[in-house]
Amino acid sequence: METRTFEELVAEAESVSVEGWDFSWLDGRATEERPSWGYSRLVGERMAHALAALDIQTGGGELLAGLPRLPALTVATESWPPNIALATARLRPRGVVVVADDDEPRLPFGDGVFDLVISRHPVTTWWKEIARVLQPGGAYFSQQVGPASVGELTEFFLGPQPPGSGRDPERARAEAKAAGLEVIDLRLESLRAVFHDVGAVIYFLRKVIWIVPGFTVDRYRLELRTLHDRIQAEGPFVVHTTRFLIEARKPV
Distances in Å between the alpha carbon of 167 and those of 143, 162, 227, 237, 251? Predict the structure, then answer.
């Protein structure tokens, strides 16, 4: 296999688009274990029986576009303009309305509109708003990033991080309960992820901007060079992601 230089890897990873929420550019360059529960499959099962569904922070609409059946009323929200354009183009043929929203309360919908609300990897979960737009008996079903996900990568660039996390699943349980929802399922898993070259790391950090806030190649060139040399000498850089699944129902 041809060994590529640090500068070649950097130039390629800086030039590629990071729009949308499709990580296929990483095929062959990085791998990540998937949670055992199979979120997309479970969402598909719920969508098949829903009457009105909302996907919050849809990204480029990848999840909804891949589902076999959608309710007659399906709406998605997104805040980032490039993703809004992608999601609209992808989901319009499926009859999905994409609403530009700034990811802050208040959700731009009336009370009790949806019997199913979903969100994959939301930046923030506005539990009171979710409870408000759910019909009695409706459910919120979400896969979320868990505590200290890819913490090894964050600490490589930023140093040791303080303990505690706003992404603790038990905190999510408490906030859901405080909003008047009943948590009927909550699961947490730690999963192995592997980066085979520094270009994959650059692409990932450009796309998942909260892992190393303010990341740019120029700002972290020294650390990137160190990581490149480490991968060349020792092999792939291994980190661990965390994911949790939460399902909360609005009482009838």
Answer: 12, 14, 27, 24, 25
